[in-house]
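User: Fold this; tokens only.

Assistant: Input:
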Amino acid sequence: MTLKPILIHPDPRLKKHCDPVTEFDKELAKLADDMLETMYDAPGIGLAAPQIGVIQRMLVMDCAKEADGSPEPMVLINPEVTWKSDERNVYEEGCLSIPGQYAEVERPKMVRVSWQDVDGKAHEQEFDELWATCVQHEIDHLDGVLFIDYLKPLKRQMITRKMQKLKRERARP
């Protein structure tokens, strides 16, 4: 497995609408393993393919956060929300592509999602609470949407300026 560098906002690849995955092969399975390793190493609970520069509809997530609990890694390929609850939830969201920045975002409390696994097999599941927030956040990435896009313009601009500064600092020798 290989750790992948995570793109930092602003990066034009993070604003692209991703292409559906059509090839279910060994390379796809390796990409899924690399994405999970990268997500756990970051550490984070979700990672979408465009965050590592791969413009395909694929994400990984694991919201099992109990210290003594076992991991529950999920790989969702070509995910699609097929139902949303009317009930809403607010979570303080962060993003591996926007390190150190957090903001409250309101989303549906529950969603049903259909997707394919690395072998192309179809799945459908309902997600609730943190899992629902995470899967919606990651699917947004596949559509070129970041959590800061839900914020008021001034707050979004402030976070973007912080990220530009961070990128400049990281680029210095």
